[in-house]
Protein: Tryptophan--tRNA ligase
Organism: Nocardioides marmoriginsengisoli
Amino acid sequence: RPRVLSGIQPTADSFHFGNYLGATRQWVSLQDDFEPFFFIADLHAITNEHDPKKLTERTLVSAAQLVAMGIDPERSAIFAQSQVHEHAELAWVLNSLTSVGEARRMTQFKDKSAKGGEGSASVGLLTYPILQAADILLYRPQYVPVGEDQRQHLELTRDLAQRFNHRYKKTFRLPEPYILKETAKIYDLAEPSRKMSKSSSSPSGIIDLLDDPKSSAKKIRSAVTDSDTVVRFDPEAKAGVSNLLTIYSAVTGRSIEDLVASYEGKGYGDFKGDLADVVVEFVTPFRDRTHELLADRAELDSILRRGAEKAREVAAKTLADVYDRVGFLKA
Ligand code: TYM
């Protein structure tokens, strides 16, 4: 079976609806037809100053959420990136294939280093996408299910794979991004021109999966819309309403067309109220299940250890090929 691989950073106390609809929901459905590898990108989470205790907690909460949303540890390797040391090792080799200019052109680096100035950003932030390329290439996956904001990193990954294959010998498979058009970018509820984001959304703009459902309902009811009254899908003219329609459609499986038709002649109040109910219905059991899983730390540790073992079988083999081709002596 071809492989599928993706990762998520443990940089918040909860995943949000952008993470879920843009990426992790696809992880769940792809497990059936692919050999799945899903990891928590804890190495990526230290490129900014962080609290070590929180990182540990958030890594565990991330694992629990993945299982609660339907990633099956029997079928999928779920692990923490730091538990598979091959990620950091391949990253070093790829660092040596990447020019500083190429790394500096990544929009994420430009955005994240803009505030304090490039001189004070960590080198880790600069080489972040190269570690991401290593994460991916180690497993030779066909697909990498992510949101739109990761597309540029996938392009770099393909460039580096090609460069290595060309310079040494064909070693890596060129991975394809798996990005669902409808949910590739979920927007902030309070500022619907910006993407929903752990680092930049204000609390009123972001719906966390582990939020108190009542508070999520309230955020939806007060989401920014427009002065028109018609529920209609038009991302240019009606960014807020269109974003709510996207979320509504993704969570219920109903088409946008069908939703639009059913709100004909009704106002935004009814529309938002119903979406709030739909979201509450979705997050309530998810939250309960996550907390249940978190209560059994030993079991979570064991899921991650088993996942890391499965991952290392594949990663170690790729890294051995790479080391051999680069000319390193056998250990
Ligand atoms: P991260 O942790 O920021 O986000 C995890 C996933 O959620 C998607 N996403 C969104 N999708 C739609 N709308 C949004 N508003 C939204 N916000 C986030 C992201 O696109 C991502 O798929 N660099 C990665 C983690 C990573 C990775 C990897 C991913 C590390 N190594 C290897 C794939 C393969 C990141 O920071 O994702």
The chain has a mean pLDDT of 97. The beta strands are 3-8, 35-40, 77-80, 143-145, 176-178.
